[in-house]
């Protein structure tokens, strides 16, 4: 039976009642084509979601002295958008099974109109800071699109294809960050820094197009159900929280720096909006493009090893930034910051690749074999990914709060960078201690008296 023939009208939408991508005949007989079609339009929607989520990284560049908002206030605005986008990832993860991947993609895309239109209304001098705060919070819905999109695409593809599909989906979404910054640069460079509404009017029709295409060409998978048991087990598992901490260091850094880079250049090096915008997109672009490379390196050398040395390199790059900051060297600062962006992208790929390997190892530690072990690994890794993604994104909140406090008290971002350097050193030590220190012990699941199995995580 082909994939197309299983699509029926149910619950008012396009539902596929049977879906078995692991079956080679099913996959080649139509499943592959259906999955690829859904992937393409999922990437489009997620891409725009990331752009709207990070919209305020650009809008703050338009906010000159006439807005009456100091650097600390601007960092608080972008931190608000980051925080909401992180928190909504959890319910968005479960929404796909509840409402259908196609249906939720359409709804979540249309939700992006709310913060975009609201920003178009309020972006002018004289608007109260509280109003800006509310509108910045609304853009957080774009951050949830990543979680629901990844959950949806994960269900469409067989295990042997998931890495490729999820890598494309994540990378295509992340590139939404530099794209909105490039569009902002174009607006500032042509119309000036007093016309933020032009940027917003570009995205309003794009949101409508993405939602319409999702409605026309995507599908819902009826067999996909929320596994609340796996979710509860993942919450209790120590590895979920260890990997969340490490993901704070990689993706949290990526999204936090994406929001903050332009503001740091403006306030520490007195760059104009145009000068700042002409640089800010480079780091997020390279960090997004290199993410699949981190996954490939993890496949070859082990995610733990790549993550370990990546955190060391991130600490070194941050150290160079501290030196450049104290010496007021813009070329060295910019070069080191862009290098740090690249490293966050590599780390995004390697840490995410660690998750399924960790739970596969735990399955073996429990004495499971064959399909039973594979099923356990898939259930736990799938359940943990949503939570890890949400907690990791909160790292961006910490970065922007650190910058806010640093500029508020010292007038420079140097103290914040010193704190980031220390954090990366802690991540390096944690990665080594848990996953690479000889025969590492699997942390026991909370509330279960299971024996501490000795496993080597060198290949995780």
Give a written overview of the molecule.
The chain folds into two domains: 1-225, Growth Hormone, Chain: A (Up-down Bundle), CATH 1.20.1250; 227-460, MFS general substrate transporter like domains (Growth Hormone, Chain: A, Up-down Bundle), CATH 1.20.1250.20. The chain is 77% helix and 3% strand. The protein is built from 20 helices and five strands. The strands form two sheets. It has a three-stranded mixed beta sheet. Strand 1 and strand 2 (13-16) form a beta hairpin. Helix 13 packs parallel to helix 19. Mean pLDDT is 88; it is low at 1-5 and 444-458.
Which helices and strands occur, and which strands form pairs?
Layout: E1 7-10, E2 13-16, H1 24-53, H2 56-59, H3 71-87, H4 89-99, H5 101-111, H6 113-122, H7 129-138, H8 141-156, H9 159-174, H10 176-191, H11 196-217, E3 220-221, H12 228-236, H13 238-269, H14 273-280, H15 282-289, H16 291-301, H17 303-327, H18 330-365, H19 370-410, H20 414-436, E4 440-441, E5 454-455
Helix pairs in contact: 1-5, 1-8, 1-9, 1-10, 1-11, 3-7, 3-8, 3-13, 3-19, 4-5, 4-8, 5-8, 5-11, 6-7, 6-11, 8-9, 9-15, 10-14, 12-19, 13-14, 13-18, 13-19, 13-20, 15-18, 16-17, 16-18, 17-18, 17-20, 18-19, 19-20
């Amino acid at each position: 039976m082909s994939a197309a023939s299983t699509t029926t009208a149910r619950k008012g939408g396009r539902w596929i009642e049977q879906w078995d991508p692991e079956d080679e005949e099913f996959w080649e007989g139509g499943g592959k084509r259906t999955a690829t079609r859904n992937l393409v339009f999922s990437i489009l929607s997620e891409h725009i979601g990331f752009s709207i989520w990070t919209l305020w990284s650009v809008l703050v560049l338009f906010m000159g002295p006439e807005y009456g908002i100091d650097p600390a206030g601007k960092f608080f605005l972008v931190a608000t958008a980051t925080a909401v986008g992180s928190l909504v990832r959890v319910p968005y993860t479960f929404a796909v099974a509840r409402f259908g991947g196609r249906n939720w993609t359409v709804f979540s895309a249309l939700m992006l109109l709310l913060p975009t239109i609201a920003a178009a209304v309020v972006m002018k001098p004289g608007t109260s800071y509280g109003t800006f705060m509310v509108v910045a919070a609304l853009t957080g819905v774009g951050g949830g699109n990543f979680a629901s999109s990844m959950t949806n695409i994960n269900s469409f593809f067989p295990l042997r294809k998931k890495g490729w599909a999820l890598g494309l989906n994540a990378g295509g979404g992340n590139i939404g960050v530099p794209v909105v910054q490039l569009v902002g640069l174009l607006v500032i460079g042509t119309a000036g820094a007093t016309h933020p509404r032009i940027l917003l009017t570009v995205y309003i029709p794009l949101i409508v197009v993405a939602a319409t295409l999702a409605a026309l060409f995507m599908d819902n998978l009826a067999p996909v159900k929320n596994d609340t048991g796996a979710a509860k087990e993942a919450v209790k598992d120590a590895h979920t929280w260890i990997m969340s901490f490490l993901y704070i260091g990689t993706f949290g850094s990526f999204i936090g720096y994406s929001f903050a880079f332009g503001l740091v250049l403006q306030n520490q090096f007195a760059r104009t909006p145009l000068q700042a915008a002409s640089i800010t997109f480079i780091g997020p672009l390279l960090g997004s493009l290199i993410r699949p490379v981190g996954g490939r390196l993890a496949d070859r050398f082990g995610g733990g090893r790549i993550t370990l040395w990546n955190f060391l390199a991130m600490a070194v790059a941050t150290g160079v930034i501290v030196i450049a900051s104290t010496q007021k060297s813009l070329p060295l600062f910019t070069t080191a910051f862009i290098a740090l962006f690249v490293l966050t992208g590599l780390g995004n790929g390697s840490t995410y690749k660690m998750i399924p390997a960790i739970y596969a190892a735990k399955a073996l530690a429990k004495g499971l074999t064959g399909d039973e072990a594979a099923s356990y690994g898939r259930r736990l890794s799938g359940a943990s990914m949503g939570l890890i993604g949400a907690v990791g994104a909160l790292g961006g909140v910490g970065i922007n709060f650190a910058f806010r406090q640093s500029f508020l008290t010292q007038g420079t971002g140097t103290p914040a960078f010193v704190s980031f350097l220390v954090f990366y050193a802690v991540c390096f030590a944690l990665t080594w201690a848990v996953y690479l220190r000889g025969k590492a012990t699997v942390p026991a699941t909370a509330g279960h008296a299971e024996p501490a199995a000795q496993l080597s995580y060198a290949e995780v």
